[in-house]
């Protein structure tokens, strides 16, 4: 790990790549935020969670994946497995004890993979427009035959981005390697509570995917919030308020937590 006053601290990986992060020291469980495809740790949701954690004294970590934000790396070399390995390094190196994982879009996939790898540590999981298996079910499945042929022939495909002047780059390497990490084709268990957020006007990840997750995840408590006018980002003040309420409930909960944020009365 390295720290420079003008830069975020970084976690150095065995190949020399650096993963930028920001950590708030606080009480357990530690909340870890996983951002989306081509996004970074300075987005609205990540920063709102950072401010909240500092205000209430909750442990919190946000970070940039390989080839994202302030982290190093060539995006064309990125794979789901690489992002997973770096995510596990962040969790294992920068946190201790129980975790509440929050995954936005692609981060929903990566955080579910981390939850599958570290099941004993996960106290709760929250998905925001979660996009597990997106390389196969959203990207590849919706390509035209011509675009798919170009992707396989050239190894990459550029597409306009809704959120950046720079085009999104889809690589065949990302698609092929991603098949090693699909989570919707086999049982998916999370010991703690689960809460899904999704906007019904999401143009990128259909809300039906969260509905599918709602039925696929095996957990003692699975709940969802679908926002009628919500988009993909779910970053409006009301969206943030709903997110923080659920995060705080999970962090304060015991075994009687319910997805609605209401606890069952004790038997005494």
What does this structure look like?
By secondary structure, the protein is α/β, with parallel strands linked by helices. The chain has a single domain (7-133, 182-252), classed as Rossmann fold (3-Layer(aba) Sandwich), CATH 3.40.50. 33% of the residues lie in helices and 25% in strands. The chain has eight helices and 13 strands. The protein has helices at residues 44-56, 80-94, 106-117, 134-139, 145-154, 172-178, 207-216, 237-252, and strands spanning 2-4, 7-12, 18-24, 27-34, 58-63, 99-104, 122-128, 156-159, 168-171, 188-189, 194-199, 217-218, 222-227. Strands 1-2-3-5-4-6-7-11-13 form a nine-stranded mixed sheet, with helices on both faces. Strands 8-9 form a two-stranded antiparallel sheet. It has a two-stranded parallel sheet with strand order 10-12. The radius of gyration is 18 Å and the shape is globular. Mean pLDDT is 92; it is low at 1-5 and 254-268.
Look at the structure and give the CATH class.
Alpha Beta
Could you state the CATH homologous superfamily?
A: Alpha/Beta hydrolase fold, catalytic domain
Which architecture would the CATH scheme give at its second level? Answer: 3-Layer(aba) Sandwich
Order of helices and strands: EEEEHEHEHEHHEEHEEHEEH
What is the residue-averaged pLDDT?
A: 92
Number of helices: 8
What overall geometry do the principal axes of the alpha carbons give?
globular
Strand content: 25-35%
Oligomer class:
single chain
Report the radius of gyration as a whole number of Å: 18 Å
- Could you tell me the CATH topology label: Rossmann fold
Poorly predicted runs = 1-5, 254-268
The helix-and-strand class reads: alpha/beta
Whole-number count of domains = 1
Strand count, sense and barrel status of the largest sheet are: 9 strands, mixed
Strand adjacency order, main sheet? 1-2-3-5-4-6-7-11-13
């Amino acid at each position: 790990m390295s720290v420079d006053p003008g830069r975020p601290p970084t976690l150095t990986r065995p190949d020399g790549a650096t993963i930028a992060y920001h950590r708030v020291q606080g009480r357990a469980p530690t909340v870890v935020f996983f951002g989306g495809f081509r996004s970074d740790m300075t987005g609205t949701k990540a920063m709102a969670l950072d401010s909240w954690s500092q205000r209430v004294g909750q442990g919190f970590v946000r970070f940039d994946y390989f080839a994202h934000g302030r982290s190093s790396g060539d995006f064309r070399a990125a794979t789901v497995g690489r992002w997973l390995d770096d995510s596990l390094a962040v969790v294992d190196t920068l946190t201790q004890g129980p975790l509440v994982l929050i995954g936005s879009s692609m981060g929903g996939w990566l955080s579910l993979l981390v939850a599958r790898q570290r099941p004993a540590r996960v106290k709760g999981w929250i998905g925001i427009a979660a996009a597990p298996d997106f390389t196969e079910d959203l990207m590849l499945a919706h390509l035209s035959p011509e675009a798919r042929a170009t992707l396989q022939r050239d190894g990459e495909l550029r597409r306009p981005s809704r959120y950046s002047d720079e085009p999104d780059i889809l690589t065949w390497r990302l698609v092929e390697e991603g098949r090693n990490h699909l989570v919707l084709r086999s049982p998916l268990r999370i010991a703690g509570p689960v809460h899904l957020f999704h906007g019904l006007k999401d143009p990128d990840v259909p809300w039906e995917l969260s509905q599918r997750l709602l039925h696929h995840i095996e957990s003692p408590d699975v709940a969802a919030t679908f926002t009628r006018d919500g988009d993909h980002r779910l970053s409006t003040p009301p969206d943030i308020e709903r997110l923080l309420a659920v995060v705080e409930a999970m962090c304060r909960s015991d075994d009687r937590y319910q997805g609605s944020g209401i606890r069952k009365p004790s038997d005494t």
